[in-house]
Amino acid sequence: MSKKIISSVAINALKEALTNVYWYKKQLRSFLLHSISNSSILSKLIGTIIRGI
After folding, report:
1. Please, how many CA atoms are within 13 Å of residue 1, restricted to the half-sphere of its CB?
2. Which of 33, 36, 49, 51 is the most buried (most CB within 10 A)?
3. Are 42 and 33 in contact (CB under 8 A)?
4. How far apart are CA 42 and CA 32, in angstroms?
5. What is the C-alpha separation between 53 and 27, in angstroms, rounded?
């Protein structure tokens, strides 16, 4: 499987969408941990979302 690069625009759009769906940080973090297996993407999302909420 080839490595895919996700643009920062896509990450920011996902961040915006998820923060609108999940009101509580704990619920959002739990959702991300259970639904994303790529550790690089996961760490970027959790880091930016948890700091940004």
Report:
1. 3
2. 49
3. yes
4. 7
5. 12
The CA distances from residue 29 to 1, 2, 12, 40, 51, in Å, are 27, 27, 16, 15, 12
Note down pLDDT in tens along the chain; length 53 residues.
Answer: 677 788 889 888 887 887 777 767 778 778 888 888 888 888 887 777 666 65
How far is 28 from 25, CA to CA, in rounded Å? 5
According to DSSP H, which parts of 1-53 are helical?
A: 8-21, 25-35, 39-52
Contacts of 11 (CB under 8 A, 6+ apart): 41, 44, 45, 48
